[in-house]
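User: Sequence in, structure out. Go.
Assistant: Echoing your sequence, followed by the structure tokens.
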Amino acid sequence: MPRFRVYGADAETGNDADQVITADTADEAEVLARHRGLLISRTVEIEEASAPAHGSDPPDRFANYPNVLDTATLQSQPKVVAKSTPVKKPEESPLRVLAGAVVIIVVLVWGISSCVSCMKPEDPAERRAREEAERNAWKTEVDKLGAYTAAQNVLERDMLISPATADYQTTYSRATTYLGNHQYTVRLVVDSQNAFGAVVRNRFTAQVTRYGEDDWRVNITADP
């Protein structure tokens, strides 16, 4: 899964507080960073570079190449003269030419009609409806992140033996489903250490309900 380094400052102290976040996209990483109280300046994807094994020598790319300085060997090789055969260009059929012209005309008409529709001013009612839909979509994403975080907190507090070793395998956008009426289902997949120190993978399902700005009720169970 991609990792992103989010640069910014802590919202309370103003100090630099860069964070490395695992997410599907840079937008998801920034949503997580804002939720943790970071004032974002920029986001950069971390590239995973693979290095050659220590002590190994790179292969000799020129080992199988002939010695270009051995002129005697080169002169002894038979000379090959390439002969070119003229290729007769096929004649274009009138039907194919007509079909190509029709396709070009259709594409031009479609492009002109699209440009005309783009130049048409947007209706105020449609603009308000679009803006309201965008605000609702953004609020839903923020609420999904809140439900996901609330489920994580309860899981680490009540279910995991070693919460400090928790490594979640899903992002909030994939793990959280909005059911309507401020109710969410969160499916968590997490790797963490058990009582013997071994890292094991467990799956949990949380039913999360929002009652207020920061009031989340979580009922979480372990999946079989």
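User: And one key feature?
Assistant: The CA atoms of residues 188 and 204 lie 5 Å apart.
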